[in-house]
Amino acid sequence: MPRPSSSLPALPGRGRRIRSRRTASGRSRRRWALALAATLVGAPLVATAPALAGSTVAPARAEADPLIVHLDSLTPAALSDNDRPVRLTGTVTNQSAEAWTGVNLYAFRSTTPILDGISLAASATIDPAEYVGDRIVEPGSFDTVDLLQPGQTAGFEITVPRDQLGIVEPGAYWIGVHAIGDSSVPRDVFADGRARTFIPYVARTDDVIDTAVVVPIREQVRHTAGGRVSGVRRWSTSLADGGRLDALLDAGESSGNTQITWLVDPAVLATVSRLAAGNPRRSLAPDPAQVPEEGGEEGAAEDAGSGEQPQTPDLAGAPLGPPAAPDEPLSGDKEAVAALAQAWLDRFAALVTGHTVLSLPYGDLDVSAAAAHDPDTYPLALSRSNEVMTALGIAHTPTLAPPDGLISPEALRAATPDGTVLLGETSFAGPPDAENSMVRLLGHKVVVTSSGAAAGGPGPTAADDPLALRQRLLSEAALRLYAGSTAPVVLELPDDWFPQDSSDLFDALDVSWLRPVPLSDITSRPASSLSAADLSYTEEDAATELGASSFTAAEGLRRKASVMAGVLSSPNLVRQQATDESLTTLSVRQRDRQGAAVLSARAAAAHLDAQLASIDVVTPSSVTLSSEDGTLGATVVNGLDQPVTVMVGSDSDGSLEVAESDVLNLAPGARSRLLLDVKASRLGVHQVRLVVTDQGGTPLGGSASLPVRAAQVSAIIWYILVFGAVLLFSTIAVRLFRQVRARRGAPDPDDTDPDTDPDGGTDRGAALGEPDRTEPEGAT
C-alpha cells in the first residue's frame, strides 16, 4: 500500500546521515580478512539457490543510485525456528534532479548461508551494486511510494512472511531492500536504490554467547598558543542536541538494562570542563587549592624574602583546567557554551555510574610512537588521566585501546600491569584461539575485540550505522555458536561513532542465545598464552605513527612551562596546563595532521617565552670603573601580573668577572635596583651582557648589553692624593716648629717693663708715641 511522504527535503545533520562507507584500506583491522577476500575475486562469495517462486533476480546497476534507501528497523533482528514474519521499515530519498513515480520497495535476501567470520568479513566488502540475493515480489510483500519530488523523503514498511524467505540452514544471510521506480527513463529490472545488511539464523539452542559493547568517548583536542581550547564552535555543536558527543550519551541512555562499557579519553572530559568554566587562557595565577588562608600571608611573605627556591607543586590532585579570572565576565556566546558543557558533563557523570569505565592515556596518546621516541610520555599521560578521573569522582581502569586495534610490541610491554588492553583480532598474525577472548601476551592480559563486528555492515549504508553494527554483531556471534565456540564477542564501537538513533543498536540484543555483559566480567576470565611472534605489527603500521619531531616539540613546551612555574613566586598550575596541551599534540588522532600539531606545541612554547622575556633588566649605556674592582648598577623590571622570584647573571669575556645577584622577589609590575660587584683582570674595555635567570641559572629571555671600562688613570689619582697629604702635613710641622722657637727666645714679662729701657731710661719709641712693633705671641 502507498505510504505517506514528506514534502520537505532531508535536512543535513538532523535526520539520517548519508555517508560514504569506510574503505578497507583505511581500516587495518581487516587485513587478514581482506587478504582472504582477495583470493575470492572472480568467484561468487554467495552461492545462491535457484530462484524461489515469487522471487526475481536483482541485477546490478553500474551508475550511482538516484534513490537512497535507509533501513530504520529490522524485526526480528535474528531468525529462529518460529514462523514470525520479518518486518523492514525505513526511508527512501530522491537525490536526483527529477521526480520519481510509482517507486516500489522490495525486500531481498540470499538463501545460501555464510558460515564463518572470515567469509562474512569478505562479503561485507562486496561492491553495493553486486548481486547478492533475489527480490521477493509476492503481492502484499512490498510497498509503494506514488511520487518522490527531488530532495523528498518518504517512509516505507515491508512485511515478509517467514516461509517466503527460504532460509532453512543456520548461518548468516544477506537481507535488504531494493527501490525501483519511473523517471524520465522508463522502469527496468535494475535497482534504483538499495539498502543491505546481514541477518543470522540460529536454530533452537541452550548455548549462550556473551557480548560486551564498548562505547568510546574520543575527540580531537586542540589549543591556541595562549592555552585556550581551540575550535569552540565545533565543540559546542558536538555537545548540543543532535551533536556527536550528545548522541553518545543518548546511546548510553537508550541501552536501558543492557550492560555497556565506557571507554573515555580524560582529555575530552577536561576540555569540556574548561569550556564550562568559560574557556580561560593558560593562567599564571596561584593555584586556588594552595592559596594561603587568612592570617597565613605573613609567613608566605617571610618565605618569599628568604631567597629559597620555591617548590613547584606536583600535578597530583590538580584541577581539570586553569582557574578562571574572577573579575572577567563571560560574553553571551561563552555563557551559552559553558551551559552546554556543564550540562553534558553532569549528564555523563550520572550516566556512567554503575557501569564499567575504562580510561585512556590522557589525550588518547599514540602509545606505539611514544614507546619508540619518548617512553617517559606514557607514564605522564597515565598519571594525568588518573588525576582527571579522580577529580571527577569516576572509578576507572587504565586502558590501552588504539583506535585501529594495533599496537607495537614495545608499547604493549610498557603497559601498566594493573590495566586493560584491547586489541583487534587483526593485531595478530592469525585469529587467536582464545576460548574467553582473552590472551596473555608479553606479560599482559589482552582482550581480543571483534574486528569484524567493529567494521560494521555492508554498503551503501554507512558501516557504523547503529542497525548495521547490530546486525554485524549478531551475525558474528551466531557464526561463533555455529562453529561450537562460546568465546565472547567484544564490540569496540568506532572511535568517531555518531549514532543517529542508537536504540537500533541495543533494542534487539535480547535474543535468548546472546547475553550482554560488562567488559570487567570478561577480563576476569583465564587467558590463553600467546608468544610475541603472534603479535602482528608491520613496518607499514609503524610508518603511520607520530614522528620524533612531535615528541621533541611537546617536550620543549613542557620544559618551558617548568621554567615559568619555577619563576612564579606562588604555587601555580602552569606546568599542569602545559602538560595537558603537550599531550593532546601527541594524540593518535593527530597522525593525519602531525605538522599542525608540532606547530601548535611550538607556538605555545613561544608564547611562554614571550611572557618570560617580559621580566627584563635595564642598564646604563656604559660604565667606567675607578679601578680593577667596582660595582655595576642595573634595574630589574617585572612585566608580568604575578609576583616572580629571579636572579641576574652575566656573560662576559674571561678578563671581567661579574658576581651573581641576590635572589630578587618582585611584585607584579615592580622594579628593583641592584649593584653587582665587578672585577677586571686587565685594564681596558669589556663587553658585558646581563641576563635575567631563574634560581637555577636558566636564562628567561630578558637581557641587556653594555661596555665596561677599567682605566689606568686610577693610579695617578692615588699619587696626587698622597703628594697632597705629604705637603699638608709638612706645612703643619714647619709652623709648629717656628711657634716653639719663638716662645723660647722671648723675655719674661714679669721681669721687664715694656715701657722702660733696660738701662733705666724711657723707651724712645714709646716716648715718641710710635706704635709697638713687637710681634704678637705666636706670630711667625
What would you say about this model in short?
With 780 residues, the chain is α/β, with parallel strands linked by helices.
Please name the defining characteristics of this protein.
disordered C terminus, 6-stranded antiparallel sheet, alpha/beta, 29 strands, elongated, 5 domains, 7-stranded beta/alpha barrel, disordered N terminus, 780 residues, Immunoglobulin-like
> What kind of sheet is the major sheet?
10 strands, mixed
Number of strands: 29
The assigned CATH architecture of the largest domain is Alpha-Beta Barrel
Residue runs with pLDDT of under 50 for 5 or more positions: 1-30, 32-53, 295-317, 752-780
Structural domains: how many: 5
Using the coordinates shown, work out and report the CATH topology of the largest domain.
7-stranded beta/alpha barrel
Name the average pLDDT. Answer: 82
Distance between the termini: 148 Å
Indicate the CATH class of the largest domain.
Alpha Beta
What gyration radius follows from the Cα positions, in whole Å?
A: 44 Å
Portion of residues in beta strands equals 15-25%
Helix/strand-derived category reads: alpha/beta
> What is the helix content?
25-40%
- What is the fourth-level CATH superfamily of the largest domain? Glycoside hydrolase 38, N terminal domain
Can you tell me the overall shape? elongated
Discrete helix count: 20
Structure description:
With 780 residues, the chain is of the alpha/beta class. The chain has five domains: 200 residues, Sandwich (Immunoglobulin-like); 305 residues, 7-stranded beta/alpha barrel, CATH 3.20.110.10; 64 residues, no CATH class; 97 residues, Immunoglobulin-like (Sandwich), CATH 2.60.40.10; 54 residues, no CATH class. Strands 11, 12, 13, 14, 15, 16, 17, 18, 19 and 20 form a ten-stranded mixed beta sheet that branches. Strand 16 and strand 17 form a beta hairpin. The longest helix has 33 residues.
